[in-house]
């Protein structure tokens, strides 16, 4: 099973996160299938590769709680529903 989750990067006390598609059995810093976004909680910046995220969600990937919150703020799930109705 594939999950969309955060992968920690950056230095000590200055964490930034990559949003990655990764196998459930992999550890947090393990090898990812694809990088689909970026999140900086300190500067509150987010970059999301929306087509890649929608593709993984269509294939059955499950976002973690934090990734779900970040995605819902970017209204990705509205786009997912619009694509499903077409």
Automatic annotation (TrEMBL):
**Localisation per UniProt entry:** Plastid, Chloroplast
Instruction: Please give the Pfam families that the UniProt record associates with this protein.
Output: Ribosomal_S16
Q: What would be the name of the gene that encodes this protein?
A: rps16
Source superkingdom: Eukaryota
Task: Could you list this entry's UniProt keywords, alphabetically sorted.
Answer: Chloroplast, Plastid, Ribonucleoprotein, Ribosomal protein
GO BP: any one term: mitochondrial translation
Q: Which family does it belong to?
A: Belongs to the bacterial ribosomal protein bS16 family.
User: What Gene Ontology terms describe where this protein resides (cellular component)?
Assistant: chloroplast; mitochondrion; small ribosomal subunit
Q: Which GO terms describe its molecular function?
A: structural constituent of ribosome
Which organism is this protein's natural source? Houttuynia cordata
Has UniProt tagged this entry with the keyword Ribosomal protein? yes
Chief localisation class:
plastid
Q: What is this protein called?
A: Small ribosomal subunit protein bS16c
């Amino acid at each position: 099973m594939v999950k969309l989750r955060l992968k920690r990067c950056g230095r000590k006390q200055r964490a930034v996160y990559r949003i990655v598609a990764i196998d459930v059995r992999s550890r947090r810093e393990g090898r990812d299938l694809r990088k689909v976004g970026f999140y900086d909680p300190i500067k509150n910046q987010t970059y999301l590769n929306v087509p890649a995220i929608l593709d993984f969600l269509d294939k059955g990937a499950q976002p973690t709680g934090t990734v779900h919150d970040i995605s819902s703020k970017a209204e990705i799930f509205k786009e997912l529903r619009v694509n499903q109705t077409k």
